[in-house]
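Notebook, p. 212. Picked up where the previous page left off. The plan for this session was modest: take the two constructs that came back from the sequencing core last week, fold each one, and keep the raw output in the notebook itself so nobody has to go hunting through shared drives later. Recording the first one now, exactly as returned: residue sequence, then the structure token string.
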Amino acid sequence: MWRPAPVPQSSRLAAPGDDSWREILDRQTDWADHWSWMPFGTVLLVDDNADSSRALAAVLTLRGYDTVAVGDGGEALDYLRASGESVGLVVLDLNMPGMDGFEFLRMRDADATLATIPVVVFSASDGARLPRAIPFVRKGTDPDQLLAMIAGERR
């Protein structure tokens, strides 16, 4: 029987100051509720904030997702090109040093292979400049909103 790997206790401590992430982690003790679906592909987390990436990775791991975190858009493009079709979804921050989220989206859209990978933007920045087709969740909102969007957008 498949079960997600347990998350080390140290990952639980990496959650940002928003206690709603901690509540999500605490609710994930009944695995039977999550066996009815299986996530497909790796979720690539693109965020320069390591604490935010670790907290989101911990929650997604508890939900059964495989995650990989990178620090900017350039690293994300490199990973996507090297990994082939193993990535099912990108969760993208907009403001990052190096290649920001907007440039990542332009570069992704210019590559026919990468353009098929769904993206959910999760950022403290304003998403007004994003194309309407890109789902946007503001950091600091209810984490369940992001989790529902991730479940609905993955390929």
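Okay, moving on. Second construct, recorded in the same format:
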Amino acid sequence: MLFIALANPMTGLATGTLDTLNNIIYNEDYPILDGMEMMCKLDIFIPDKDDERNVIPVFLIHGCAYTVWYDKGSMEPICQYLRHKGYTVFNIEYEGRGFLPLGLRKKGYKATQSIAAAIKYVLTMSDEFAINPDQATLIGVSAGGISSLFLGLYDELNDQEYSLFKDLEDQFGGIYSNSPFISTEVKPAAVVSIGSALPSLDIIDFTDLEETSFLMIHGEEDEMVSIDEDTPFGAIGDSFNEGLRRFRSNYSNRNRTELTEALVDLFEPDKLAEDLIIPDIFGSRAIVNRMVSINPEAVDSLFLNNEDHSMLFGERRNIPKRAFINIMEKIDVFIQESTLKYRKRFTAGDFILHPTTRVVATSIIGLGLVILFIKALIL
């Protein structure tokens, strides 16, 4: 099979086959992203047929609970399905790991910054990838679904929304501005959120639903992320919160010495325990109800009976379940309908090659130049 390399102006080369370009690092040597614990990478799945969907960039965002480690490989069945349908697919691996569930809110914020940086990185090279940035589509699963929703809804310039996350922005910088491509906007045409939730419904407003369409998919038996309002992680989350509340109660009632008072001033354990309590989140049904009350045309839903958090994959996370094809067919139709209004009408003078054709054409041109050079030397 022919191998190719994609020139990366910031990181050098990423190699792959004509089907996939692997492990392009998008946060290396970016001072504004310093402090991230891992290299953030993405794979590019090149469509295997000429189709009007070739120009639609689809960004896949894997789940990880913002705490435990799952990589982008868990999303490969979705990537392959969409590539065969004709989409150009970008599978993102992002910052988001730690100890369950310490610092969950902070890690979710940093993960979303990282995902936004990946999307911006791709959109700045839309000509090279022959994609239409106005048709950008996000598909997120679990924690990735939360981030995809956030990127489709959050407006840093909205004072009410900004106030919800001001403390994190003061500490880590803005969601969208924490990237080398500060002027590049992330305004997806479509967002597919699978098994996810939101920390607040207040970030949903009419403006968001004018620009972006949403598809909410959720299993009705999901105990990890409830389809309604609840504490995430099910019984584990409830037990964790109960333990923290007992600690705060016992700690506040105990006798304190001069030494313990000094330790309190230094470590602030009471405040730490308060910060670590996992807040309730609003699941897909609550989100859909809010969106429908604002603009029913902007949201669609697929709530699955007798399905839990593993509605797409089995226990190994990379083996599709029986419902996989039906869910993916629904997603395919949704993407096409939601991005239709942003389709560019190319004039006769416009000529954009399908990515695979472009690679082959470039190789042929290069070979031709080498032959001409050799002939010139002989003559």
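Notes on construct two before I forget. The two ends are 34 Å apart (CA to CA).
Flagging for discussion at group meeting.
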